[in-house]
Design a protein that fits this description.
Elements (H helix, E strand, L loop, with lengths): L12 H11 L8 E4 L9 H16 L4 E6 L9 H13 L8 E3 L4 H13 L3 E4 L3 H7 L17 H12 L9 E4 L14 E5 L13 E3 L1 H12 L3 E5 L6 H9 L9 E5 L2 E3 L6 H9 L14 H7 L3 H11 L6 E3 L1 H15 L1 E3 L1 E2 L2 E6 L8 E6 L9 E6 L2 E5 L19 E4 L4 E9 L5 E9 L16 E2 L1 E3 L4 E8 L24 E8 L11 E4 L3 E5 L8 E8 L3 H5 L3
Helix pairs in contact: 2-11, 7-8, 11-12
The chain binds adenosine-5'-triphosphate and magnesium ion.
Length: 561
Amino acid sequence: MNQPQETDKLPNFVLDVVKADVAAGRNGGKVMTRFPPEPNGYLHIGHAKSICLNFGIAQDIPGAVCNLRFDDTNPSVEEDEFVRSIQEDVRWLGFDWGARMYFASDYFERLYAIAEKLVREGKAYVDSQTIEEMRAGRGSFHQPGRVSPYRDRTPDENLELLRRMRAGEFPDGAHVLRAKIDMQASNQNLRDPVMYRIKREHHHRTGDAWCIYPMYDFAHGYSDAIEGVTHSICTLEFENHRPLYDWFLDQTPEFDPRPRQTEFARLNLTYMTLSKRRLKLLVEGGHVKGWDDPRMPTIAGLRRRGYTPEAIRAFADRIGVSKRNSFVDVTLLEHAVREDLNARCRRVMGVLRPLRVVLENVPEGQEDAFDAPWFADDPSRGGRSLPFGRALFIDREDFAEVPPKGWFRLTPGGEVRLRNACIIKCERVVKDERGEIVELRCSWDPDSRGGNAKDGRKIKGTLHWVSEKHSLPAEVRLYDRLFRAENPGEEGDEFLGDLNPASFEVVQARVEPSLAGAAPGDRVQFERVGYFCVDPDSKPGALVFNRTIGLKDSWAKQQGK
Ligand code: ATP
Ligand code: MG
């Protein structure tokens, strides 16, 4: 695993390529990039890398622009929901395509005209072999292709057939249009690739206007060329498609500028899967609650989980852009969000698994309050008053009847400090008939307001707490990694077997009263516990929090910090 250092930005060689082109005066200094999603799923963190790269270039280079183009050439899968979510996610990440939102389907007529031109020039032909025959004819890596018996049809014959294909005279699969390149080419992408197929499917934008649809490899490069894209940035899998895109563009010299393709390594994250097909299976199979399930690596999921656009952009900067495929440790992403939330989130108190504490020396009905800053290291950022009374809650995990070695939290007869408040001592443990601890009877030290004992005795442990009477009930959703394997199911659909059965847990918590007005999207740190974000499922009086991330930074630890 090649891991970037914590604070260093790794180099971005694509940005360097573009800058060099500008310096060399290529395309008259003009720079146009694009982000070209296929609207067949929600965007994920891998797409965010591509978005930050393409829109980032437009931001970094004066006068440069970036288009949002939906690559919607495949009619069976596109859906308006995905078109809407993609726009929302790109905007949320902080980028703007201005008026430059396009659809490859807007170019269908133009693409068809190019196809007819290639047919007339003898550079494309209608093939009527079956799919199996065609597949066999393409050969393999070790075996050259075999020429189709239909390859020598005349341009007139091909033109007539193509027009009849478009007119709907043939059933699906009867014919395809192929580019006439080279069946012996060592690069299989050049072995007369299919340009059009007959497919009677409703298209989300063109409806039933077409029954032939262009293939991705034909449509993609031309969509860039039609828009005037100067730099087509894509992932490494497309490196050996580049000769094909170039071949197409060689046939149509009218396109100027001609897009320059540069390939970079896609993002892979440990303990995650970034395949749209797999993410779709997770959603459709009910393994998660939807595309925006906070355990999903989708932008919508990360947003709901409490990630910030700033954190995702900082992560994208740090991983850099290179030509080397590798896995990025998910703890680096977690580190980026923790760092961002640390700077912005108020510190409040929330008790995830409440254990009742009764202070026997506080009279029934007596109330008190303690002032507490939102940020202990910077009181100028304000604070709130924490109500205090006879009954409190602490976290069950903060009490041990038989403490392990090195335990500084509460224990029978022991003392702890309540954060921002005072010192308490555990006098007695109350259990129910099954032996479960139901309550602790404690006392407080009235001379310890602020947290320090007057007699100078040392108190090591500090616990978070809330007042029973004033705190608010809240549902807290705790998320863990969706997969327990570092590289889930390297093959096929076995990845489902690597799902982490403990990736989701709900607890009924109590949170401090200052959160009464919290609204969906608000983010806080529950002291000693982690960062949390108010979920859209919240209703007035019934708060729901998602745990974004715990406080323990395993990335920083790995780096020896
Ligand atoms: P599909 O298999 O459905 O094509 P895809 O992930 O390639 O999935 P697209 O909608 O085609 O999805 O991707 C849009 C853009 O995002 C492409 O330019 C692609 O290169 C880029 N992209 C997709 N996945 C990643 C990734 N993991 N890392 C970086 N860029 C990515
Ligand atoms: Mg793709």
